[in-house]
Amino acid sequence: MAVPLKVLQIVPSISLVYGGPSQMIRGFSKALARAGADVTILTTNSNGDNGQPPLDVPLDRAVEQDGYQVRHFPCALFQRYKFSPALLLWLWRNAFKFEITHIHALFSPVSSLSAWICRLRRLPYILRPLGTLDPADLRKKRWLKQIYVALLEGPNLKQAAAIHFTATDEAKISERFGASTPHFVLPLGVELPAPVTDRSCLDDLAIDPARPLLLYMSRIEPKKGLDLLIPALEKVAASGLDFQFVLAGANPQDPDYEQGILKQIQDSTIAARTIATGFVTGDVKAALLDRADLFVLPSYYENFGIAVAEAMVAGAPVLISNRVQIWDTIRETDSGWVVPCKMEAIAAALTEALSLPDRREQCGTNARNCALERYSWDAIAERALELYRQYGRLF
Predict the structure, then answer these.
(1) Which tens digits make up the pLDDT trace of 198-215?
(2) Tell me: the pLDDT tens digits for 115-167?
(3) Mean pLDDT score, 6-25
(4) pLDDT of residue 35
């Protein structure tokens, strides 16, 4: 019997408040465990950046979950920086026990210093940037990031065993800072949802079952293109087309921006058509995805867009910008509409989608088939294990 590959996953946090990039680690690790790997997630108990209490979890102790282990460590000083000396000390002492480490996120103290320790301890590591090498993202806090690159992230990139991108376009546009490190493209996966047999939870949200439902389900932050989507919806409403718009999301890291968006909608012509649910999970999330006639995400940049894949596997057609880096897959499989980041283009696509229910239905079928074929966690995990064996150290 083959000895299981010992894999370490390092991520700053797996709290739900940080959205898809953090949450995907759970599905990925579960699938890796099913494929025969011995997986440990190393993370902190960070649970938001605005005074929320940390996660109520056991600290510095292995907790079994879905076939893998999770070890949480406390944050020092402020949660928002996700800096944990205890985590780093544990990694220093235990790095020799693993064949490879998969580090998720750049420009984060836990991720960057973990890569540094892996270099010192000669443990091969793979970096997944989560879109942080996108030129648009690098422009934020530019000078600070340049210093960070010179001290840590540049050497980390150069000495990584490989860089993990989740879409071909992400690999093309990402800044490497002179590194010639090998890379591979491996998409994120989605769990197959259970059939939704009861939508009664939507009654509490006052959702009309007879009207077309446009669904935005993602974090409420500037890069998501809400400044384009809201006026586009206003333009469509002015044309006389009927719809209801569900804004499902929040931003605990920047509540002022979230409140600004809600105020903008409240003062707009689509206020009566809009239902703002806040962050949703469980049955409500599943029911909304199942009920959606069109999923919308016109982001300015998105390295993958796990929310898009979740909508697709639920059978919803999607309307995304051509800066969501799986746009080529959407277009190739005719799973929805792909538009530039322009209000007029978004409005035109919304108008077409609302006017053509049969095309929406076909795109939804195509989207589900595409997601089942390309975003299966089990298939992704098998490919990941091949890559781990290629880039890891085997005893």
Answers:
(1) 888 898 899 999 999 999
(2) 999 999 999 999 999 989 999 889 888 899 999 999 999 999 999 999 999 99
(3) 86
(4) 96
Nearest to 214 by CA among 188, 233, 239: 233
- Predicted pLDDT of residue 48: 74
Domains of the chain: 6-189+376-391 (3.40.50.2000), 200-374 (3.40.50.2000)
Q: What's the burial of 357, exposed, middle or buried (CB within 10 Å: 0-12/13-18/19+)? A: exposed
Is 346:229 a contact under the CB 8 Å cutoff? yes
Q: Is the pLDDT of residue 395 over 60?
A: no
In terms of Cα–Cα distance, which of 257, 341, 362 is closest to 296?
A: 341
Q: How many CB atoms lie within 10 A of CB 150?
A: 11
Mean of pLDDT values over 310-334: 96
Sign of the dihedral through C-alpha 343, 348, 351, 353? negative
CA of 91: how far to CAs of 84, 111, 121, in Å?
A: 11, 11, 9
Triad 180, 128, 184: Cα angle to 5°: 55
One-character DSSP codes across 101-144: EEEE-SSSHHHHHHHHHHHHHT--EEEE-TTTTSHHHHTTTHHH
pLDDT above 90 covers a percentage of the chain that reads: 82
Edge to edge, the sheet with strand 318-321 lists 274-276, 244-248, 213-217, 294-297, 318-321, 336-339
Residue 187, Cβ neighbours under 10 Å: how many? 21
Token digits of residue 253: 């890291």
